[in-house]
Description:
- The protein is of the alpha/beta class.
- It has a 6-stranded mixed beta sheet.
- It has a single domain, classed as CNF1/YfiH-like putative cysteine hydrolases (4-Layer Sandwich).
- The protein contains 7 helices and 16 strands.
Amino acid sequence: MMGEINFKQDSVIANIKGVQHGFFTKNGGVSTGVYSSLNCSPSSDDKPDNVAENRQRVMAALGMSDVKLFGVNQIHSKQVHQIKSARDKDFPDGDALITTQKGVALSVLGADCTPVLFASSDGKVIAAAHAGWRGAVSGIIESVIGKMLELGAQREKIMASIGPTIHQAAYEVQEDFINELSSMSDFNVNEFLLHNEGKVFFDLPAYLLKQCARSCIEVSDIGLDTYQRSDEFFSYRRNSHQKLPDYGRQISVIGLTVE
């Protein structure tokens, strides 16, 4: 085992009865090289046995070893899939999972893109979303909230937590990005762009915070930067800057426990 497995939690979600969650770091797994060590992505070129072991360690750390862990094949969309039982299909194409089913856990992967975990304060509905800039602008946050309302959650009781993600200081963008962002977004994107010495930087977590606030749900940001905290998190952009061949993905999980 390389390093100690650990995870971060949102203080509000942590106090919801029957809900368990964690934003995991990259440490405590069995993978090596660019995947060292808690790489949880089956789509990476890591050894499948290592990924499977890492995912099992994640569930053990949450005290949910007997709970089915679901993932999603992330495509930077606003597609939300409902998990109705432990027999449902794993890794459907989309960017969010939602459930009211006890005894299952939902997960998303990240290596700069933003994991967002959701829970209703009565512990009846949970969701996990993967929000890169394209998914964010396309409306993944609103799609999740809409589905939670359909499943009985009350808007004023929905809590969202923004997990480890790339922050503005390292998220340099080019003119084509800015043009596409501006054409897709219903916000004035200038408030999320920082101009500094001829370069432009995008604030993804601030964009997501504003979307949640506009949707009138409670939201918090744990404030962890995947790019800067190289000892704790995988980062696609950091590995690209270092010209490494691939990158690992950390996992964020939320589940409904069986009481």
